[in-house]
């Protein structure tokens, strides 16, 4: 992207401000680490059942209690139309208009585990150009998309599948646990009833298109709903390229049984996992401070990981309501973003911010 001197100056102001604000807020987030274990449970407490109904025609009954190896549909088909994504700036926000289709190959849809055909979408999302850390994390809820790739394919990790089809049971199936067949393709993606292709896990086609390498910092994958960047697997800590690892672990022992699922905690349900601060190098939102090509002075960022949760299940900042399902391009009740736009850090001026780089990969 060609930039004049004025734009370069704005970028420097933003990078300095972003670095200051992220570092000022990071200790606050990590001081809260022992209490952040509530994020996973809180995600269930805040489930939007009405929103879930928009992405699933009805809740299916399930009594499976055992995790199983995933049987992924091969990616050997082209999307129904070419991928389209356009980023633009509007005040303190960066806006995306896209058709929700990737530029990489996808699996066959419908398939045995997913009856829906892929269709182009009218996707209209926005993110803060100057994301800020919130005082407390916001759990991801069902019916709310976590983020979006640079090419406009959303990350929507939760599945609207519950023990006995009852969202109030407190037991939500893990989309990557294999207990319930969801027809995922080899990009760990499948299709919603409205035709929206979306990622539940590590999107191999996307990472291949971005030339991801284990020897380098991850390329920029996309942005979360709160405006912080999304990377995958590798980051920078103490000046070294390292594997970024989740701090969630399987609980020990067995589930309660009775009127709740039986069997050992094996990953079939989201509730089989618990956050253990320090067991990995990422916080409860699968995030950490990293230095990257896009943010040479450093930034808080999210990471897709190999292990659970793979796609983060909470936000360190304030997610924009345009990411709520059922609001294609709409703004939630609070206007532009949950809680309204932030005031920025030192040196911040309205409209300053680093635009997403030109989209590359899927």
Question: How would you describe what is shown here?
Answer:
This protein is α+β, with helices and mostly antiparallel strands and 362 residues long. It contains 4 helices and 17 strands. A hairpin with a 2-residue loop joins β11 (234-237) and β12. The two termini are 19 Å apart.
Defining key terms:
362 residues, 20% strand, alpha+beta, 8-stranded mixed β-sheet, 17 strands, 13% helix, globular, disordered N terminus, disordered C terminus
**Quick check: average pLDDT?**
82
Q: What's the total count of β strands?
A: 17
Strand order of the biggest β-sheet: 7-8-6-5-9-10-16-15
Distance between the termini: 19 Å
Strand content: 15-25%
Low-confidence residue ranges: 1-25, 27-39, 41-57, 328-362
Write the layout of secondary structure elements.
Layout lengths: L4 H27 L6 H8 L3 H7 L29 E6 L2 E6 L24 E6 L4 E7 L7 E3 L4 E2 L33 E3 L5 E3 L4 H6 L12 E3 L4 E4 L1 E4 L2 E4 L4 E3 L22 E3 L11 E4 L8 E6 L9 E4 L45
Parallel strand pairs: 6-8, 10-16
Antiparallel strand pairs: 1-2, 2-3, 4-17, 5-6, 5-9, 7-8, 9-10, 11-12, 13-14, 15-16
């Amino acid at each position: 992207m060609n930039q004049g001197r004025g734009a370069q100056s704005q970028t420097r102001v933003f990078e300095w401000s972003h670095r200051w604000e992220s570092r000022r807020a990071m200790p606050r987030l990590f001081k809260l680490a022992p209490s952040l274990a509530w994020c996973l449970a809180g995600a269930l407490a805040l489930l939007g059942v009405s929103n879930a109904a928009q992405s699933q025609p009805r809740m299916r009954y399930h009594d499976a209690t055992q995790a199983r190896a995933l049987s992924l549909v091969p990616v050997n088909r082209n999307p129904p139309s070419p991928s389209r994504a356009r980023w633009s700036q509007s005040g303190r926000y960066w806006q995306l208009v896209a058709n929700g289709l990737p530029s990489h190959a996808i699996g066959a849809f419908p398939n045995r585990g997913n009856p829906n055909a892929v269709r182009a979408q009218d996707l209209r999302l926005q993110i803060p150009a100057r994301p800020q850390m919130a005082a407390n994390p916001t759990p991801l809820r069902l019916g709310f998309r976590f983020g979006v790739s640079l090419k406009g394919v959303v990350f929507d990790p939760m599945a609207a599948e519950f023990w006995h089809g009852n969202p109030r049971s407190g037991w939500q199936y893990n989309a990557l646990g294999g207990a319930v067949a969801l027809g995922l393709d080899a990009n760990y993606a499948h299709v919603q009833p409205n035709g929206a292709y979306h990622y539940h896990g590590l999107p191999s086609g996307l990472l291949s298109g971005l030339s991801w390498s284990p020897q380098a910092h991850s390329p920029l994958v996309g942005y979360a709903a709160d405006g912080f960047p999304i990377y995958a697997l590798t980051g920078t800590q103490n000046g070294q390229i390292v594997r970024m690892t989740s701090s969630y672990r399987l609980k020990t022992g067995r589930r309660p049984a009775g009127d709740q699922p039986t069997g050992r905690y094996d990953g079939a349900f989201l509730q089989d996992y618990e956050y253990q601060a320090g067991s990995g190098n990422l916080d409860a939102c699968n995030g950490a401070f990293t230095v990257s090509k896009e943010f040479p002075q450093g930034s808080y960022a999210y990471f897709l990981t190999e292990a659970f949760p793979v796609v983060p299940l909470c936000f360190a900042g304030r997610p924009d309501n345009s990411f709520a399902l059922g609001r294609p391009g709409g703004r939630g009740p609070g206007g532009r973003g949950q809680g309204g736009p932030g005031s920025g850090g030192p040196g911040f001026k309205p409209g300053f911010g680093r635009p997403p780089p030109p989209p590359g990969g899927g």
